[in-house]
Amino acid sequence: MSIWFGGEFPLEYCNRRNARTLNGNLGIELLEAGADYLKGRMPVDERTANPAGVLHGGASIAFAETLASWAGAFVLDSTTHHCVGLDINGNHVRPAMGGSVVYGTAKPASLGRKVQVWEVRIENEQGGLVCLSRVTMAVLEGANRY
């Protein structure tokens, strides 16, 4: 059974909306939505690397929040509710080298009426864990602005 309100996640719509935002500037692309997850990718390049040439921790956090925010938005009825970021943390486990790509997968840990908690795993191209993030979203009344 799918967690997405209405049954399907709107990948193309979200990627279009990302284009002229921080998400697009960082090269973030949503790739796939399964029944209970959202997957995306982000390049490790001059936009996302630190001066040492590895993935910047802040870019990892922005990537995690992007995935959790899009996912959180579309488990709700967008005509009556929306969600906003409440808290985020990240454990940076290993570096991702410049010239590579990282992949992130957001899965819900809890989907409550007032709070959502998402776990986001960011992995390198070999499947090694780069960053493990937890994103907490507040669910608010009012239509979604997406």
From TrEMBL:
SUPFAM superfamilies: Thioesterase/thiol ester dehydrase-isomerase. One of its GO terms (molecular function) is 1,4-dihydroxy-2-naphthoyl-CoA thioesterase activity. One of its GO terms (cellular component) is cytosol. Keywords: Hydrolase. It comes from the Bacteria. Residues 53-131 form the Thioesterase domain. Belongs to the thioesterase PaaI family. This is Hotdog fold thioesterase. It comes from Ectopseudomonas toyotomiensis.
